[in-house]
Amino acid sequence: MDYHHASLALQEWLEEQQPQDQQPELAYYCEAINPATNEVIWDDLLYTDEQRTKRLEEAAAAGLTLTIEATPDEIWA
Predict the structure, then answer these.
(1) I need a labelling partner for 45 at 20 to 30 A (CA). Which of 3, 24, 29, 36 fits?
(2) What is the rounded CA–CA span in Å between residue 27 and residue 75?
């Protein structure tokens, strides 16, 4: 078996399966921390301002400290 040509064929096939017009989404990483124990209660990626507002409200209601990264990450779906 010619492994070199087989691996090239597999690579070409995989490239054909990927959508060419796909763009990464920008998302902000956030963590909710319990200030009493310094334990991370949950973490999440925020894609929209609506999600950001919802998480801020949830953290405030539960008495958690929410940290959101200032720079968004590129997320490939």
Answers:
(1) 36
(2) 7
Rounded Cα–Cα distance for residues 72 and 49 (Å) = 13
Q: Which two tokens stand for residue 14?
A: 């995989």
- Residues 6 or more apart whose CB falls under 8 angstroms from that of 57 comprise none
Cα 55 to Cα 4, 5, 62: the distances in Å are 50, 50, 11
Q: Within 13 Å, how many C-alpha atoms sit on residue 26's CB side?
A: 6
> Cα(30)–Cα(44) distance, rounded to whole angstroms?
5
Can you tell me the distance from the alpha carbon of 76 to that of 2, in angstroms, rounded to the nearest whole number? Answer: 33
Q: Which three-class secondary structure state does DSSP give residue 18? A: coil
Instruction: Choose between 16 and 68: higher pLDDT.
Output: 68
User: What token pair was written down for 29?
Assistant: 């990483």
pLDDT of 5: 62
